[in-house]
Amino acid sequence: MSLMKSLLGAAAATALTATAVLADGPALVFDLGGKFDRSFNEAAFNGAQVWADETGGEYREIELQSDAQREQALRRLAEAGSNPIVMAGFAFGSTLETIAPDYPDTTFVIIDSVVDQPNVQSIIFQEHEGSFLVGMLAGMASESGTVGFVGGMDIPLISRFGCGYAQGVVAANPDATVIANMTGTTPAAWNDPVRGGELTRGQIAQGADVVYAAAGGTGVGVLQTAADEGILSIGVDSNQNGIHPGQVLTSMLKRVDVAVYNAFTAGTDIEPGLVVLGLAEDGVGYALDENNAELITEEMMAAVDAAREQIIAGEITVHNFSDDGTCPVAMQ
Prior knowledge:
Radius of gyration: 19 Å
Number of helices: 10
CATH architecture of the largest domain: 3-Layer(aba) Sandwich
Number of strands: 12
Structural class: alpha/beta
CATH topology of the largest domain: Rossmann fold
Number of domains: 2
Shape: globular
CATH superfamily of the largest domain: Response regulator
Strand content: 15-25%
Strand order of the largest sheet: 2-1-3-4-5-11
CATH class of the largest domain: Alpha Beta
C-alpha cells in the first residue's frame, strides 16, 4: 500500500451529508467522539479531505451518536451505493462481521480491527512502536523521573499504546516511574475531557511532569490541564503540538489520515485482507514542528531516530501488549 508523500491540513468541508445519495463514491463513518476530536476521528477526516481536494471527488460521511447506530449507518451507506465504505474504529468489528456478507459487491475498510471477510480490508497500526519513541522523549525530558499515561477506553488497543510508551520511558531512563490510568470502560471514555483533566491532576500530584494522552477527545482535557499546570504533555494520532505550542512535547502520529486517503484512492480496487502499518511503513511516528522544536534537543532527536532505525531493523523489539496481555514494564 502506497503512502502519501505529504498531507495537507483540513480544508473547508466538501463532503456530502449523510442524507445525500452518492452512488459509487466512497464513504467514511466516524467513531464516537465526533470528527473534530483533534485526534483519531479528525485524522480520518483530514485524510478524506486531502483526497477530495486532490481529486475533486466527493464522499459521504456519517457521525455516530450512539453504538446502536453502527449497523444502521453501514447498511444505509451500502444500500445507497457507496463504495468503498471506510469505518474508523475497532468498535465496528462485530457489526461488520455480520453485515459484510450481505453486501458482497461492496468493499469495506475497517481501521483498528481485523474482520476476516472476502470483501473487507483490515488496517491495524503498530501503536506500540510509535509510543516507544515518544516514551523515550518523555523519559529524557522529565526532570522528576515520573511520567504519566492517560488512556481512553480500557481495551487492549489502548494498553498497546501505554505499554509501548512505558518501554520507551525506561529505555531512556531505567529509574523512571510510569503512572497509568484509563478513563473508563465504555465508549464514553473517548469524549470526557473533564475526566481527562482530573486524571492528569492526579498524576501531577504523584510527581508526573510529562503526561501522554491516548484517549481521543478526552485527551484534549489532558493537554489543557498539563498546560495549565505547567508540565509537558504528549498528543496522539493527529499532530496536536499546536494545541498548546511550547507545552506539548510531541505527538505520537498514527497515520489514520494515510489509511483513509489510500482507501479512497484505491476505490473499488482495494485488496481485501490485513494491512499492518508500523515504523517501517511510516504508519506511526513522532511529530516535530515549530511548536515543539525548542523542546526536543539534538541529543534527544538523535537517540529517538537511532531507536527508530533499530526497531525497523529488528535490533530493538518493542513488546506488543496484544500478543499476550502483558507488559514487561510495571506501571503504577
